[in-house]
Amino acid sequence: AGTDEAAFAELRALAQHEKAVAIGEIGLDYYWQDNPPREFQQMVFRRQIELAMELDLPVIFHDREAHGDCFDTVLRYPDVRGVFHSYSGSAEMAKDLVRRGWYISFSGVATFKNAPKVREAIAVVPNDRILIETDAPYLAPVPHRGKMNHSGLMLYTAEAVAAVKGIDTDTAIRLTAENAKRLFGI
After folding, report:
1. Are strands 130-132 and 82-84 parallel, antiparallel or unpaired?
2. From residue 22, how far is each of 87, 88, 135, 139, 181 by CA, in Å?
3. Which residues make Cβ contacts (< 8 Å) with residue 33, sequence separation at least 6?
4. What is the pLDDT of residues 176-185, one digit of tens each?
5. Which of 4, 139, 160, 182 sits 20 to 30 Å CA-CA off 111?
6. Which pLDDT band holds residue 3 (cuts at 50, 70, 90)?
7. What is the mean pLDDT of residues 26-31?
8. What is the rounded radius of gyration, in angstroms, for the C-alpha atoms of the chain?
9. Dihedral in degrees, nearest 10, Cα atoms 139, 142, 147, 153
């Protein structure tokens, strides 16, 4: 328990730095069965959210195979704001999150042929709540899928978002950059 308190004290100190713009990436990852245990993940997640609330910072949510528990957490902390990063949930959940003030971010998965659910979510997220990201070094977009991802490949994700939204790529880049600046106060 003492080590946990020391870690949270260090996190609090780092988050108070003038260049800190969010608490994250925080969340739940149930992909690896009980490693770490779900109860432990949930406890740490709640403490990180409470720190974000205390410091009035947005959060960057990680949700892997834990959509229900992450959404339940959003309901328990209605004053928290932020972004669900590398979104993989349903279009319905995306609409509900946006209605509650959240941003939704999409990675190179938007370019994968086997990811129609992601494109359905892109379609329902309003232009003023959508972000794009690399999730580097993972999830490189097509035609670089399976290789190391980096920011130089974001154009492919922007093109995929633009195609779904029916806007040109330059507009997608501009509006997602404006959204990031607004969310993170930069």
Report:
1. unpaired
2. 18, 21, 16, 22, 12
3. none
4. 999 999 999 9
5. 182
6. low
7. 92
8. 17
9. -80
